[in-house]
Design brief:
By secondary structure, the protein is an alpha/beta fold. Helices cover 44% and strands 13% of the residues. The chain is built from 19 helices and 13 strands. The strands form three sheets. The protein has a seven-stranded parallel beta sheet, with helices on both faces. A four-stranded mixed beta sheet has the order 11-10-12-13, sandwiched between helices. Helix 1 packs across helix 3 and helix 12 packs antiparallel against helix 13.
Length: 495
Protein backbone atom coordinates (compact mmCIF):
# COMPACT_ATOMS: atom_id res chain seq x y z
CA UNK A 1 0.00 0.00 0.00
CA UNK A 2 1.26 3.45 -0.94
CA UNK A 3 0.19 6.73 0.63
CA UNK A 4 2.92 9.03 -0.69
CA UNK A 5 3.95 9.97 -4.25
CA UNK A 6 7.73 9.88 -4.13
CA UNK A 7 8.28 10.83 -7.78
CA UNK A 8 6.09 13.92 -7.43
CA UNK A 9 7.97 14.83 -4.26
CA UNK A 10 11.39 14.56 -5.93
CA UNK A 11 10.23 16.83 -8.76
CA UNK A 12 8.60 19.46 -6.52
CA UNK A 13 11.39 19.52 -3.96
CA UNK A 14 14.09 19.84 -6.63
CA UNK A 15 12.25 22.74 -8.26
CA UNK A 16 11.93 24.55 -4.93
CA UNK A 17 15.61 24.11 -4.15
CA UNK A 18 16.60 25.55 -7.52
CA UNK A 19 14.23 28.48 -6.92
CA UNK A 20 15.86 29.10 -3.55
CA UNK A 21 19.37 29.03 -5.04
CA UNK A 22 18.22 31.65 -7.55
CA UNK A 23 17.05 33.88 -4.70
CA UNK A 24 20.64 34.56 -3.63
CA UNK A 25 23.53 36.01 -5.61
CA UNK A 26 26.46 33.77 -4.80
CA UNK A 27 25.78 30.74 -2.69
CA UNK A 28 23.09 28.84 -0.78
CA UNK A 29 23.75 26.99 2.45
CA UNK A 30 21.08 24.28 2.59
CA UNK A 31 20.65 22.62 5.97
CA UNK A 32 19.19 19.14 5.70
CA UNK A 33 16.86 18.49 8.63
CA UNK A 34 16.73 14.87 9.75
CA UNK A 35 18.71 12.12 8.07
CA UNK A 36 20.02 12.56 4.55
CA UNK A 37 20.46 8.79 4.14
CA UNK A 38 18.50 5.83 5.53
CA UNK A 39 15.51 7.90 6.65
CA UNK A 40 13.47 4.97 7.89
CA UNK A 41 11.25 7.16 10.03
CA UNK A 42 9.96 8.96 6.94
CA UNK A 43 9.57 5.70 5.00
CA UNK A 44 7.53 4.17 7.82
CA UNK A 45 5.10 7.07 8.31
CA UNK A 46 4.84 7.92 4.60
CA UNK A 47 4.36 4.59 2.77
CA UNK A 48 5.93 5.10 -0.63
CA UNK A 49 8.74 7.36 0.60
CA UNK A 50 12.11 5.67 0.00
CA UNK A 51 14.70 5.75 2.82
CA UNK A 52 17.30 7.33 0.50
CA UNK A 53 14.94 9.77 -1.23
CA UNK A 54 17.01 12.80 -0.14
CA UNK A 55 20.16 11.18 -1.46
CA UNK A 56 18.58 10.52 -4.85
CA UNK A 57 17.41 14.13 -5.00
CA UNK A 58 20.86 15.44 -4.11
CA UNK A 59 22.45 13.29 -6.80
CA UNK A 60 20.47 15.22 -9.43
CA UNK A 61 22.22 18.38 -8.15
CA UNK A 62 25.65 16.78 -7.69
CA UNK A 63 27.44 19.02 -10.22
CA UNK A 64 26.64 22.15 -8.23
CA UNK A 65 26.67 20.75 -4.69
CA UNK A 66 29.22 20.01 -2.02
CA UNK A 67 28.56 18.46 1.37
CA UNK A 68 29.69 19.55 4.82
CA UNK A 69 29.18 17.01 7.60
CA UNK A 70 28.70 18.49 11.07
CA UNK A 71 29.30 16.57 14.29
CA UNK A 72 28.73 17.79 17.84
CA UNK A 73 31.99 17.63 19.80
CA UNK A 74 30.12 16.19 22.79
CA UNK A 75 28.97 13.21 20.71
CA UNK A 76 32.49 12.27 19.65
CA UNK A 77 33.76 9.26 21.56
CA UNK A 78 30.53 9.03 23.59
CA UNK A 79 28.42 5.94 24.16
CA UNK A 80 25.59 7.49 22.12
CA UNK A 81 24.61 5.71 18.95
CA UNK A 82 22.91 7.08 15.87
CA UNK A 83 19.18 6.39 15.81
CA UNK A 84 18.32 2.76 15.20
CA UNK A 85 21.68 1.81 13.68
CA UNK A 86 23.55 1.01 16.90
CA UNK A 87 26.62 2.71 15.36
CA UNK A 88 28.50 5.39 17.32
CA UNK A 89 28.82 8.92 15.98
CA UNK A 90 32.49 8.62 14.98
CA UNK A 91 31.91 5.56 12.81
CA UNK A 92 28.62 6.89 11.46
CA UNK A 93 30.37 10.01 10.17
CA UNK A 94 32.92 7.87 8.31
CA UNK A 95 30.10 5.73 6.91
CA UNK A 96 28.39 8.89 5.63
CA UNK A 97 31.52 10.02 3.81
CA UNK A 98 31.84 6.59 2.18
CA UNK A 99 28.19 6.53 1.14
CA UNK A 100 28.29 10.04 -0.34
CA UNK A 101 31.47 9.20 -2.21
CA UNK A 102 29.92 5.99 -3.58
CA UNK A 103 27.00 8.11 -4.87
CA UNK A 104 29.40 10.43 -6.67
CA UNK A 105 28.81 13.30 -4.25
CA UNK A 106 31.57 15.65 -3.14
CA UNK A 107 32.28 15.96 0.58
CA UNK A 108 34.18 19.20 1.10
CA UNK A 109 34.88 19.03 4.84
CA UNK A 110 33.87 17.96 8.32
CA UNK A 111 32.94 20.52 10.98
CA UNK A 112 33.24 19.84 14.70
CA UNK A 113 30.64 22.06 16.39
CA UNK A 114 30.10 23.14 20.00
CA UNK A 115 33.81 22.68 20.63
CA UNK A 116 35.08 23.31 24.17
CA UNK A 117 38.51 21.73 23.99
CA UNK A 118 37.27 18.15 24.40
CA UNK A 119 40.16 15.70 24.16
CA UNK A 120 38.03 13.19 22.24
CA UNK A 121 37.24 15.87 19.66
CA UNK A 122 40.94 16.74 19.30
CA UNK A 123 41.81 13.08 18.78
CA UNK A 124 39.05 12.57 16.23
CA UNK A 125 40.08 15.72 14.37
CA UNK A 126 43.63 14.40 14.13
CA UNK A 127 42.34 11.04 12.91
CA UNK A 128 40.20 12.64 10.20
CA UNK A 129 43.07 14.81 9.04
CA UNK A 130 45.31 11.73 8.84
CA UNK A 131 42.72 10.34 6.41
CA UNK A 132 43.04 13.45 4.24
CA UNK A 133 39.77 15.03 5.41
CA UNK A 134 39.63 18.79 6.00
CA UNK A 135 38.28 19.65 9.46
CA UNK A 136 37.00 22.96 10.85
CA UNK A 137 36.02 24.04 14.35
CA UNK A 138 32.87 25.86 15.54
CA UNK A 139 33.18 27.00 19.14
CA UNK A 140 30.62 26.47 21.88
CA UNK A 141 28.43 29.39 22.87
CA UNK A 142 26.91 29.25 26.33
CA UNK A 143 23.18 28.78 26.76
CA UNK A 144 23.10 32.21 28.41
CA UNK A 145 24.25 33.81 25.16
CA UNK A 146 22.76 31.58 22.47
CA UNK A 147 20.31 32.29 20.95
CA UNK A 148 19.32 35.43 22.90
CA UNK A 149 22.44 37.63 22.85
CA UNK A 150 22.32 38.58 19.19
CA UNK A 151 24.79 41.46 19.57
CA UNK A 152 27.45 39.09 20.92
CA UNK A 153 26.63 36.31 18.45
CA UNK A 154 27.06 38.63 15.44
CA UNK A 155 30.50 39.85 16.50
CA UNK A 156 34.16 38.81 16.44
CA UNK A 157 33.63 37.26 19.88
CA UNK A 158 30.68 35.22 18.62
CA UNK A 159 30.63 33.82 15.10
CA UNK A 160 33.92 35.60 14.49
CA UNK A 161 35.78 33.12 16.71
CA UNK A 162 34.82 30.22 14.44
CA UNK A 163 36.87 28.85 11.58
CA UNK A 164 35.88 30.07 8.13
CA UNK A 165 34.93 27.04 6.05
CA UNK A 166 36.34 27.09 2.54
CA UNK A 167 33.73 26.06 -0.04
CA UNK A 168 33.86 25.95 -3.84
CA UNK A 169 30.34 25.27 -5.12
CA UNK A 170 27.12 27.31 -5.23
CA UNK A 171 25.07 24.78 -3.22
CA UNK A 172 26.53 23.81 0.14
CA UNK A 173 24.62 21.02 1.86
CA UNK A 174 24.88 20.67 5.65
CA UNK A 175 24.13 17.26 7.12
CA UNK A 176 25.09 15.30 10.24
CA UNK A 177 25.29 11.77 11.66
CA UNK A 178 22.54 12.57 14.17
CA UNK A 179 20.39 15.27 15.77
CA UNK A 180 21.62 18.21 17.84
CA UNK A 181 24.69 18.69 15.66
CA UNK A 182 24.54 22.49 15.36
CA UNK A 183 24.09 22.63 11.58
CA UNK A 184 22.13 25.88 11.65
CA UNK A 185 24.81 27.56 13.78
CA UNK A 186 27.43 26.49 11.21
CA UNK A 187 25.33 28.03 8.42
CA UNK A 188 24.83 31.31 10.29
CA UNK A 189 28.53 31.46 11.13
CA UNK A 190 29.36 31.06 7.45
CA UNK A 191 26.97 33.84 6.42
CA UNK A 192 28.67 36.12 8.94
CA UNK A 193 32.20 35.26 7.75
CA UNK A 194 31.35 35.48 4.05
CA UNK A 195 29.69 38.84 4.50
CA UNK A 196 32.95 40.14 6.02
CA UNK A 197 34.68 38.88 2.86
CA UNK A 198 32.18 40.63 0.58
CA UNK A 199 30.25 37.49 -0.27
CA UNK A 200 26.46 37.58 0.08
CA UNK A 201 25.29 34.03 0.76
CA UNK A 202 21.88 32.64 1.59
CA UNK A 203 20.39 29.99 3.81
CA UNK A 204 17.47 27.59 3.61
CA UNK A 205 16.42 24.44 5.39
CA UNK A 206 15.44 21.20 3.67
CA UNK A 207 12.62 19.90 5.87
CA UNK A 208 10.61 16.71 5.99
CA UNK A 209 9.05 17.01 9.45
CA UNK A 210 7.08 18.53 10.97
CA UNK A 211 4.69 18.79 8.03
CA UNK A 212 3.98 22.52 8.12
CA UNK A 213 0.63 22.42 6.30
CA UNK A 214 -0.96 19.76 8.50
CA UNK A 215 -2.58 20.37 11.92
CA UNK A 216 -0.34 20.70 14.95
CA UNK A 217 -1.74 17.50 16.48
CA UNK A 218 -1.96 15.51 13.26
CA UNK A 219 -0.62 11.97 13.61
CA UNK A 220 2.28 12.75 11.27
CA UNK A 221 3.42 15.63 13.45
CA UNK A 222 2.89 13.70 16.69
CA UNK A 223 5.03 10.91 15.23
CA UNK A 224 7.79 13.45 14.63
CA UNK A 225 7.60 14.55 18.27
CA UNK A 226 7.79 10.90 19.31
CA UNK A 227 10.88 10.38 17.16
CA UNK A 228 12.64 13.36 18.77
CA UNK A 229 11.51 12.86 22.37
CA UNK A 230 15.14 12.56 23.47
CA UNK A 231 15.81 16.06 22.09
CA UNK A 232 12.75 17.53 23.81
CA UNK A 233 11.61 18.92 20.47
CA UNK A 234 8.09 20.31 20.56
CA UNK A 235 5.92 21.12 17.58
CA UNK A 236 4.47 24.64 17.72
CA UNK A 237 2.35 26.96 15.64
CA UNK A 238 4.85 29.28 13.96
CA UNK A 239 4.07 32.66 15.60
CA UNK A 240 6.08 34.62 13.02
CA UNK A 241 4.17 33.03 10.14
CA UNK A 242 0.83 33.62 11.82
CA UNK A 243 1.64 37.28 12.39
CA UNK A 244 3.01 37.87 8.89
CA UNK A 245 0.37 35.99 6.87
CA UNK A 246 -2.52 35.21 9.22
CA UNK A 247 -2.01 31.52 8.40
CA UNK A 248 -1.31 28.75 10.91
CA UNK A 249 1.79 26.72 10.03
CA UNK A 250 3.55 24.08 12.10
CA UNK A 251 7.21 24.49 13.01
CA UNK A 252 9.13 23.39 16.08
CA UNK A 253 10.77 25.03 19.06
CA UNK A 254 14.42 25.07 17.97
CA UNK A 255 13.71 26.68 14.60
CA UNK A 256 11.42 29.25 16.22
CA UNK A 257 14.04 30.04 18.89
CA UNK A 258 16.78 30.48 16.27
CA UNK A 259 14.75 32.57 13.83
CA UNK A 260 15.60 35.98 15.40
CA UNK A 261 19.31 35.24 14.82
CA UNK A 262 18.63 34.30 11.23
CA UNK A 263 16.63 37.47 10.73
CA UNK A 264 19.33 39.64 12.30
CA UNK A 265 22.06 37.96 10.24
CA UNK A 266 20.19 38.50 6.98
CA UNK A 267 19.38 42.09 7.90
CA UNK A 268 23.07 42.79 8.49
CA UNK A 269 24.09 41.14 5.21
CA UNK A 270 21.26 42.09 2.86
CA UNK A 271 19.67 45.07 4.58
CA UNK A 272 16.52 43.02 5.08
CA UNK A 273 15.58 39.40 5.58
CA UNK A 274 14.02 37.40 2.72
CA UNK A 275 12.09 35.38 5.31
CA UNK A 276 9.25 36.42 7.54
CA UNK A 277 9.04 33.15 9.46
CA UNK A 278 10.80 29.83 10.15
CA UNK A 279 8.26 28.24 7.80
CA UNK A 280 9.44 30.57 5.03
CA UNK A 281 13.05 29.44 5.42
CA UNK A 282 12.07 25.77 5.02
CA UNK A 283 11.82 23.90 1.73
CA UNK A 284 9.18 21.28 2.49
CA UNK A 285 6.82 19.90 -0.15
CA UNK A 286 5.91 16.71 1.74
CA UNK A 287 2.35 17.81 2.47
CA UNK A 288 1.61 18.25 -1.25
CA UNK A 289 2.61 14.68 -2.08
CA UNK A 290 0.52 12.67 0.39
CA UNK A 291 -1.98 10.61 -1.63
CA UNK A 292 -3.70 8.69 1.18
CA UNK A 293 -4.19 10.66 4.40
CA UNK A 294 -5.79 7.76 6.29
CA UNK A 295 -2.99 5.33 5.45
CA UNK A 296 -0.30 7.81 6.48
CA UNK A 297 -2.16 8.61 9.70
CA UNK A 298 -2.39 4.92 10.59
CA UNK A 299 1.29 4.45 9.75
CA UNK A 300 2.13 7.38 12.00
CA UNK A 301 0.13 5.85 14.85
CA UNK A 302 2.14 2.64 14.57
CA UNK A 303 5.36 4.66 14.56
CA UNK A 304 4.36 6.43 17.78
CA UNK A 305 3.78 3.08 19.49
CA UNK A 306 7.11 1.76 18.20
CA UNK A 307 8.86 4.84 19.57
CA UNK A 308 7.07 4.38 22.89
CA UNK A 309 8.42 0.85 23.21
CA UNK A 310 11.90 2.03 22.19
CA UNK A 311 11.98 4.69 24.91
CA UNK A 312 10.73 2.22 27.52
CA UNK A 313 13.46 -0.24 26.49
CA UNK A 314 16.14 2.45 26.62
CA UNK A 315 14.88 3.55 30.04
CA UNK A 316 15.07 -0.01 31.34
CA UNK A 317 18.67 -0.17 30.05
CA UNK A 318 19.60 3.17 31.64
CA UNK A 319 19.94 4.89 28.26
CA UNK A 320 17.11 7.43 28.51
CA UNK A 321 15.71 9.74 31.15
CA UNK A 322 12.50 9.88 33.13
CA UNK A 323 11.71 13.14 31.32
CA UNK A 324 11.97 11.41 27.94
CA UNK A 325 9.72 8.62 29.17
CA UNK A 326 7.16 11.16 30.41
CA UNK A 327 7.27 12.95 27.05
CA UNK A 328 6.56 9.83 25.04
CA UNK A 329 3.78 8.82 27.43
CA UNK A 330 2.16 12.24 26.91
CA UNK A 331 2.40 11.83 23.13
CA UNK A 332 0.75 8.40 23.35
CA UNK A 333 -2.02 9.96 25.41
CA UNK A 334 -2.48 12.89 23.01
CA UNK A 335 -2.69 10.45 20.11
CA UNK A 336 -5.27 8.34 21.97
CA UNK A 337 -3.16 5.20 21.55
CA UNK A 338 -2.56 2.07 23.62
CA UNK A 339 0.19 -0.53 23.16
CA UNK A 340 -2.48 -3.07 22.24
CA UNK A 341 -3.13 -1.04 19.06
CA UNK A 342 0.09 -2.56 17.72
CA UNK A 343 -0.96 -5.85 15.99
CA UNK A 344 1.75 -8.26 17.25
CA UNK A 345 1.66 -7.18 20.91
CA UNK A 346 -1.36 -9.12 22.16
CA UNK A 347 -0.48 -12.37 20.31
CA UNK A 348 3.06 -12.25 21.73
CA UNK A 349 1.86 -11.70 25.30
CA UNK A 350 -0.80 -14.40 25.02
CA UNK A 351 1.73 -16.89 23.66
CA UNK A 352 4.14 -16.07 26.49
CA UNK A 353 1.44 -16.59 29.09
CA UNK A 354 0.52 -19.92 27.51
CA UNK A 355 4.10 -21.24 27.28
CA UNK A 356 5.57 -19.63 30.39
CA UNK A 357 8.58 -18.32 28.48
CA UNK A 358 9.72 -15.58 26.10
CA UNK A 359 7.83 -15.35 22.81
CA UNK A 360 7.91 -13.31 19.62
CA UNK A 361 4.94 -12.56 17.38
CA UNK A 362 5.26 -11.34 13.78
CA UNK A 363 2.39 -9.61 12.01
CA UNK A 364 3.05 -10.27 8.31
CA UNK A 365 2.20 -7.81 5.51
CA UNK A 366 -0.99 -9.76 4.71
CA UNK A 367 -2.14 -9.41 8.34
CA UNK A 368 -1.49 -13.01 9.36
CA UNK A 369 0.27 -13.35 12.72
CA UNK A 370 3.05 -15.90 13.31
CA UNK A 371 4.46 -16.68 16.76
CA UNK A 372 7.61 -18.33 18.02
CA UNK A 373 8.54 -19.59 21.47
CA UNK A 374 11.81 -20.25 23.24
CA UNK A 375 12.98 -23.87 23.10
CA UNK A 376 16.18 -25.72 24.06
CA UNK A 377 17.40 -25.31 20.46
CA UNK A 378 16.16 -21.90 19.34
CA UNK A 379 15.46 -18.47 20.77
CA UNK A 380 11.94 -17.12 20.28
CA UNK A 381 13.11 -14.73 17.53
CA UNK A 382 14.69 -17.58 15.56
CA UNK A 383 11.61 -19.77 15.96
CA UNK A 384 9.28 -16.98 14.81
CA UNK A 385 11.53 -16.27 11.82
CA UNK A 386 11.55 -19.90 10.69
CA UNK A 387 7.80 -20.20 11.23
CA UNK A 388 7.20 -17.13 9.09
CA UNK A 389 9.35 -18.53 6.28
CA UNK A 390 7.42 -21.81 6.46
CA UNK A 391 4.16 -19.89 6.17
CA UNK A 392 5.29 -18.01 3.06
CA UNK A 393 6.67 -21.21 1.49
CA UNK A 394 3.55 -23.27 2.29
CA UNK A 395 5.57 -25.72 4.38
CA UNK A 396 3.86 -27.55 7.24
CA UNK A 397 4.86 -25.96 10.54
CA UNK A 398 5.81 -29.38 11.94
CA UNK A 399 8.57 -29.82 9.34
CA UNK A 400 12.13 -29.22 10.60
CA UNK A 401 13.90 -26.88 8.21
CA UNK A 402 17.06 -27.46 10.23
CA UNK A 403 17.60 -30.88 11.76
CA UNK A 404 18.16 -30.93 15.54
CA UNK A 405 21.21 -33.04 14.76
CA UNK A 406 22.68 -30.09 12.85
CA UNK A 407 21.97 -27.64 15.67
CA UNK A 408 23.56 -29.78 18.41
CA UNK A 409 27.21 -29.37 17.32
CA UNK A 410 26.68 -25.63 16.83
CA UNK A 411 25.48 -25.40 20.41
CA UNK A 412 28.50 -27.38 21.56
CA UNK A 413 30.74 -24.92 19.72
CA UNK A 414 28.99 -21.92 21.29
CA UNK A 415 29.01 -23.19 24.86
CA UNK A 416 31.97 -25.57 24.99
CA UNK A 417 34.51 -23.58 22.96
CA UNK A 418 33.33 -19.96 22.62
CA UNK A 419 32.12 -19.57 26.20
CA UNK A 420 28.57 -18.43 25.42
CA UNK A 421 26.09 -18.93 28.24
CA UNK A 422 23.12 -19.15 25.89
CA UNK A 423 23.21 -22.29 23.69
CA UNK A 424 20.14 -21.32 21.66
CA UNK A 425 20.68 -20.14 18.11
CA UNK A 426 20.26 -16.42 17.41
CA UNK A 427 18.61 -15.27 14.19
CA UNK A 428 21.90 -14.69 12.36
CA UNK A 429 23.09 -18.19 13.29
CA UNK A 430 19.78 -19.69 12.17
CA UNK A 431 19.94 -17.95 8.79
CA UNK A 432 23.52 -19.07 8.18
CA UNK A 433 22.64 -22.65 9.18
CA UNK A 434 19.50 -22.55 7.00
CA UNK A 435 21.65 -21.41 4.05
CA UNK A 436 23.98 -24.36 4.52
CA UNK A 437 21.07 -26.79 4.80
CA UNK A 438 19.55 -25.32 1.62
CA UNK A 439 22.33 -26.97 -0.41
CA UNK A 440 20.87 -30.43 0.29
CA UNK A 441 17.37 -29.76 1.69
CA UNK A 442 14.79 -28.50 -0.88
CA UNK A 443 12.45 -27.31 1.91
CA UNK A 444 15.22 -25.20 3.48
CA UNK A 445 16.07 -23.80 0.05
CA UNK A 446 12.42 -22.90 -0.59
CA UNK A 447 12.11 -21.26 2.82
CA UNK A 448 15.25 -19.21 2.26
CA UNK A 449 13.77 -17.78 -0.94
CA UNK A 450 10.94 -16.22 1.10
CA UNK A 451 13.11 -13.77 3.08
CA UNK A 452 12.16 -10.76 0.96
CA UNK A 453 8.49 -11.31 1.81
CA UNK A 454 9.21 -10.45 5.45
CA UNK A 455 9.83 -6.81 4.58
CA UNK A 456 7.31 -4.41 6.18
CA UNK A 457 6.31 -6.97 8.81
CA UNK A 458 5.77 -5.91 12.43
CA UNK A 459 7.25 -7.97 15.28
CA UNK A 460 7.06 -7.83 19.07
CA UNK A 461 9.05 -9.68 21.72
CA UNK A 462 7.96 -10.26 25.31
CA UNK A 463 11.57 -9.70 26.47
CA UNK A 464 14.36 -7.39 25.36
CA UNK A 465 16.35 -8.94 22.53
CA UNK A 466 20.08 -8.98 21.92
CA UNK A 467 21.49 -6.44 19.49
CA UNK A 468 22.17 -9.34 17.11
CA UNK A 469 18.51 -10.28 16.83
CA UNK A 470 17.34 -6.65 16.65
CA UNK A 471 19.77 -5.90 13.82
CA UNK A 472 18.82 -9.00 11.84
CA UNK A 473 15.14 -8.07 12.02
CA UNK A 474 15.96 -4.55 10.85
CA UNK A 475 18.13 -5.82 8.00
CA UNK A 476 15.22 -7.98 6.89
CA UNK A 477 12.92 -4.94 6.95
CA UNK A 478 10.96 -6.10 10.00
CA UNK A 479 9.98 -3.42 12.53
CA UNK A 480 10.71 -4.93 15.94
CA UNK A 481 9.61 -3.77 19.40
CA UNK A 482 10.17 -5.33 22.82
CA UNK A 483 8.66 -5.35 26.27
CA UNK A 484 11.05 -3.47 28.61
CA UNK A 485 12.00 -6.54 30.64
CA UNK A 486 15.05 -8.79 30.65
CA UNK A 487 14.79 -12.54 30.16
CA UNK A 488 16.61 -13.13 33.46
CA UNK A 489 17.26 -11.15 36.63
CA UNK A 490 21.04 -10.73 36.25
CA UNK A 491 22.50 -7.25 36.46
CA UNK A 492 24.82 -7.68 33.47
CA UNK A 493 23.32 -8.56 30.10
CA UNK A 494 25.22 -9.20 26.88
CA UNK A 495 24.22 -6.87 24.08
Amino acid sequence: MVGFDCEKYLTMQSEKILERIGLFENKLYLEFGGKLTDDYHASRVLPGYLPDTKLHLLKTLSDMAEIIIVINASDIGSLKTVGESGVNYNDSLLQLIDKFTDYGLYVGSVVISKYRGQAAADNFKAHLESLGITVYIIHYMSEEDYPSNIQLILSDEGYGKNDYIETTRPLVVLTAPGPGSGKMTVCMSQLYHENKRGIKSGYAKFETFPVWNRPLKSMLNLAYEAATADLRDVNMIDPFHLEAYGISAVSYNRDIDAFPILNATFTEIWGQSPYKSPTDMGVNMVGYCITDEDLCAESAKQEIIRRYFAVRRNFAQGQSTKSELSSIELIMNNAGLAVTDRPPVVPALEKAELTGGPCVAVSLPDGYVITGKTSPLLGASSAALLNALKYFAGIDERVHLISPGVIAPIQQLKVGYLGNENPRLHTDEVLITLSICAATNPAADLALQQLEKLRMSEAHSTVMLSNVDVNVFRQLGVNITCEPVYQNKRLFHRK
